[in-house]
Give the backbone structure.
Amino acid sequence: MASSAIHFCTERDLPELMERFADWYRHNPRLQERAYFDWQFRDGPTRLADAEYDFLILRNAADEITGCLGFAGFEFRVGDEVRLGGWTHNWMAPQQGDAGLALLWRFMELVENRFLLRLNEKSGAVVKLLRVPMLGTMPRWWAAIDAELVTAHFNIHQQEDRQHLTQSAEAFRRAIGDDEVHRLDCFATEDEFDLGRFGGATGLARRTGRYLNWRYRDIPNHNYQFLRTETGVGVYRLEQVIGTDVSVIRLLEWTFDDRETRSALATVLADTATQNPVLIDFHTTFAPLGDMLRRCGFVPQSMTATPMPDLFRPTFHSGGYAVAIDLPPHRQARSVAFDKWYITAGDSDIDRVKL
Amino acid sequence: MTIRLKLADLVAATLELPVEQVHDRLSSDTSESWDSVHHLMLILAVEDAFGIHFDEAELLSLTNFRDLLATVETRAAR
């Protein structure tokens, strides 16, 4: 560590940093873009560091960038409290001894409530040693919109799997309502959506209008669609399956109840019909939402023997752990009921190519 | 067994080094195997073996054998 130095990123560091990103994140073009970096680490609604960017840089004795750790602040609800939290991005310190840990420590000094996303085997091992509860795989729910096309495009041929597809498509079709919900271009800043209708979640990042606008409207080179009712919210995007003429609808936020879901799904289908969607999915830890979606034809990822594909365009995910939640008291063995937290894949699904 | 010997054994086992290579100047700067994961493994092993607890600030600063030994000896004497 004596030969390394850690400092907050400034404008002057960006040309060299982007060069490093072109190597480290060569499979994720979004991460190599300056506009995306500014949006993520400078322009967020809740900043953690008194610095130009919420981003730490590691330099070696030759003053070269050899590692980094970015983070984003956010407000979250846990029980009856609103707390300040931070989640990590781009934790990278290849072959840098214990300097990767030093980066993590600088982040931990800034915020007591830490959420570590998409950890690989190495970073996951570090977090596990700190006795931080971790979730391996983000639960996924999907429904077939067109069972035949799903079979054809995703090579799901086992008889039992095809039955599940057919049943899912039939149940999904029956769930579609006759009316629709409101579409909108952005949210009122002071709006806030929660999961009270589901009995509440143990914890969730506050879905305020300000947060949602930053997360889904202001993000460069992405295209999300917004829906809402009086108290519910939905955000989705359409993803073309590369090399085909079909697409997949990906829900990023969904707090609608049963009745609203039927209307919201009708709205989504009406707005995406020309793009030939064959599948719809939602990644969330919050079990009551999964139960509700099940009544609308959605099934858990484990339903089919041949796994339903999750990636439909060139992108790179290193696998590992989906999320780790490190709340005080730290370094004590404990558990987190992840199925009572509202966490969606959209929280970390930001490096994908725009459609 | 002295604290020094017991700690040297722990460091050697955790970093997968011959115990003869564990000396006061051994540190995360001089040992390739003393990386983030092994550092944490070492700290946790030391806590278990000596029945002590390091706070978060100490976790990162104890990256050489000499400081680690001095801290363990101080805590063990309490």
Summary: Chain A has two domains: 5-138+317-347, 140-303. The first helix of chain A runs from residue 14 to 24.
